[in-house]
Amino acid sequence: MIANLGLGILLITFIVTVYSAVTAAASNPKGLARLLRSLPSLRAKRFADELEKLETPQRAASMAESARRAMLLTFPLLTLTSLLLIYLLVNDHYEVKFVYEVTSRSMPTYLKVTAWWGGQAGSLLFWSWLMSAFASLVTLRKWDRDREFLPWVIFVSCVTLAFFVGMTAFFENPFRVFYQTETGVEAHFFPPANSIPFTPEDGRGLNPLLRHPGMIIHPPLLYLGFVSYVIPFAFAIAALITGRTDDRWIRLTRRWSLWAWLFLTFGLVLGGRWAYDVLGWGGYWGWDPVEIAAFMPWLTGTAFLHSVMIQEKRGMLKHWNMLLIILTYDLVIFGTFLTRSGVLSSVHAFAQSAIGPLFFVYIAMTLIVSVALVIYRWGELKSETEMNSLLSRESLFLFNNLLFMSILVVCFWGVIYPLTSELFTGSKVTVGPAFYERANGPLFAGLMFLMGIAPLSAWGHSTLKTLGRAMWLPTIAAVLVTVAIFATYTHNVYALIGFFLVAFVILITLYEYWRGSRARMKIHSENILTAFWNLTARDRRRYGGYIVHISMMLMAIGILGIELFQMETQGTLEVGQQQSIGGYDVVYKDIARFTGPDGREVTRATLSIYRGNEYLGDLHPRIDYYWDSQQSMTIPGQRATMKDDLYILLVNWEPASATGATFKIYVNPLVNWLWMGSLLFLIGIIIAAWPDKDPERVAVRAGKRARQASAAD
Amino acid sequence: MKLNKFVIGGLLILGAVVFLIANATKDASQYFMTVDELKAEGPAIVDKNLRVSGAVIGDTIQYDPSTLTLTFEVAHVPAEDATLKDEGGLAEALHQATIDPSRSRMTVVYVGVKPDLLRNEAQAIVTGSVGADGVFHAEELLLKCPTRYEEAVPEQAG
Predict the structure, then answer these.
(1) HSE on the CB side for A293, CA within 13 Å?
(2) pLDDT computed for residue A466 by the predictor
(3) Rg, C-alpha atoms of chain A
(4) Lowest-pLDDT range of A35-49, A138-152, A495-509
(5) Rounded CA gap, A194 and A208, in Å?
(6) Where are the strands (E) in A402-529, listed by range?
(7) How far apart are CA B97 and CA A21, in angstroms?
(8) Looking at domain B30-147, what is its CATH homologous superfamily?
(9) Which of A236, A271, A609, B60 would suit a FRET pair with A174, their CA atoms being 20 to 30 Å apart?
(10) Which of B10, B29, B113 sits opposite A651 (nearest CB)?
(11) Distance between CA A264 and CA A224 in Å, rounded?
């Protein structure tokens, strides 16, 4: 019953989104007519004339309003659908296939709720629900100055929404119910002939790997990031169609793209943390195609974040920004699809999945149409100024963009290489993490270098001399730091280059802060803290960005540490025996096996950790075996410090065997800096993205400032 | 003149990226192979980076806990999904491979902890290279056991 209700509402939602998209487009026939005119066909031109006659201000306004209301309806509709699905999940309705696949009786209620995004069908619904929430949020804002954008923002949002809701309704529907027929048990919407309803006793349960707190927050955050990027894309398309191709669309969506970036970054970091805590291989990132699929929109999104500044300040790179946001949008769609289906394991698996080809058709269509729009507006997107100094801020930002795009190309190549080589040569070849590390390493180093010098360069024109004057002091300090690291910590060349760049960026950024604060202290006779506070408050985007840069460097310290200095050992220990690694002595004390509350069998070892004679505490690595899904999970025992992590895995123990228990022990140096860095990142981005009291007025003021700045050049 | 330096800079980056990709691809490529394909290649394949999948023969598993050296044999299983389906699914194909003495076999040596899942009829996916003696030296050992977890539809009750 409830499953049928869910299905019904989902279908209604689909109709509403299609209605809203069509009405929104039809409310602006002049916009359509203009597009038609550009086609080299006489008939299209005549049709365009007819269309233009249709537009009257009253009709346009009432249709746009109707489209807007229809769109606002999608949020309550999808909320209701989602609540119905959650009801089914929480109340053990195993006759529903989706519920059977992702929950089981032994799961606690909160996990049954989060099972919503534990499978493909549910996560598509989750995506649609978020999308409808964001689209509604956007249409609620004041549109007085941007009336002409509204129908097209609604159009793009609703086309996207219609695609996802349609996908959920027609292909990956979570409301299919089991029926027993003559040939076996099948899942259908309505009972087939000669069938009786079928309810399994218990569900298969959520994959144990997904029952971790990190996995509960990680997918929603990633999806929030994905979905937020639809909004800047919608505004970009609106700008292209209406011909209002100044930087208005960028200013309107600046906060959206910042929040999107925040969610995406944090989603990625949490995914890494989850892998570190749960997957039990001592690492946090494996260059898996699924990870890369989520990483690629982050790359274009980060490039976009930087390059829009050039358009705002200098009126350049307008084509590029359009292309970047289009690419980000399509990578988001690609990522959504990939993260929940294992298509990249083989070409064949892809052809077998029903929604795979549809996703690719959708991506291809949106890409072609959007790029065609950019080409159509090519002339109007001409740069207002010319780039002429290699060391100017805009030029360095351009290089930053090139590097981000290069990393994207490397990642994309790595992902599609197995597919293309299988198609063209017949032999299946894959590239491992080594490929990404070797190809991306120098590119990341280049980005770090730019991160150091770009904040010092001026818009318009910079020379080596002006740059050198600003950076010689921090550079010398960074060299000294590197020498100290060489003397005390490591002789590894890659590590030294990495640590030099980290020190370089952090010191230059802090120096910038110091110079800014000192100037304020002199001019406004403020004390250092007030000066520092006011400096940040006055230009939050800039100084928030600096904090983000520093946080990225802290994360780089962690990555360098674990990538270059990880130590590991393994061995089978008997009770009382000890193993030593990286200055730690690990003594195996005892082991116990017991049954946990949610249907898992826990095997938990106790090890005492010593450094020399000093007792540091006990660690408890364990193996959880889940009966419902017949899968085990290896949870490490961790002792985290800023210097290094001791990370112990219980690999094997059989009650009957006399040989003792087998452990794998890692020492992961500096990895905690990665997690600390991500917290600082959060602070930095919130400073940069926090809404102003009156965004309109600030935007106007910023516009004036930019004009003054360019006049000063 | 102004444009030139940007073009040169861009081309330099482009060239560097192409070089990095080509170089890293060459060094980090792994070839997916079945046991049959590997045997057919003969000595040409020695020391190349490979990933081979096969069915574990339970009787051949030997483990020395003092040196952590694990030795076992795998038998050929087809890689194509269509062929697997003809043989009745992965579980059935693995079963057939272990009882069919005419299948080509390969000895695998792995140094490390013996995985729980290593047992007769498990699918082993090994990454490493073949020595001149034809023994596969695995750096990484993945095991898959077809379970009810992969079945889409529940078994009939009663």
Answers:
(1) 20
(2) 83
(3) 28
(4) A35-49
(5) 37
(6) 429-431
(7) 56
(8) Nucleic acid-binding proteins (2.40.50.140)
(9) A271
(10) B113
(11) 7
Nearest CA in chain A to B6: A390
Q: Which residues of B touch A (CB under 8 A)?
A: 2, 5-6, 9-10, 13, 16-17, 20-21, 23-25, 27-33, 51, 65, 68, 79-82, 112-116, 147-149, 153-154, 156-157
> Can you give the pTM of this predicted structure?
0.88
Please write the tens of the pLDDT for every residue from A410-428.
999 988 887 788 777 777 7
Classified as helix, coil or strand, A151 is helix
**AA identity, residue B17:** V
ipTM higher than threshold 0.85: no
| Interface contact B27-A429, CB threshold 8 A | no
* Selected residues 58-87 of chain A with any CB under 8 Å from a CB in chain B: none
Q: Where along chain B do its domains lie?
A: 30-147
Average pLDDT on A276-284 reads 80
State the smallest CA–CA distance between residue B28 and chain A in angstroms: 5
Backbone angles phi, psi at A408, to 5 degrees: -60, -45
In this structure, the dihedral spanned by the alpha carbons of residues A475, A480, A485 and A490, taken in order and rounded to 10 degrees, is 80
d(CA A274, CA A678): 14
Nearest beta carbon to residue A410 from set B2, B21, B147:
B21
Q: What is the 3-state secondary structure (H, E, C) of A496-554?
A: HHHHHHHHHHHHHHHHHHHHHHHHHHHHHCCCHHHHHHHHHHHCHHHHHHHHHHHHHHH
Q: Tell if the CB–CB gap between B113 and A664 is shorter than 8 Å.
A: yes
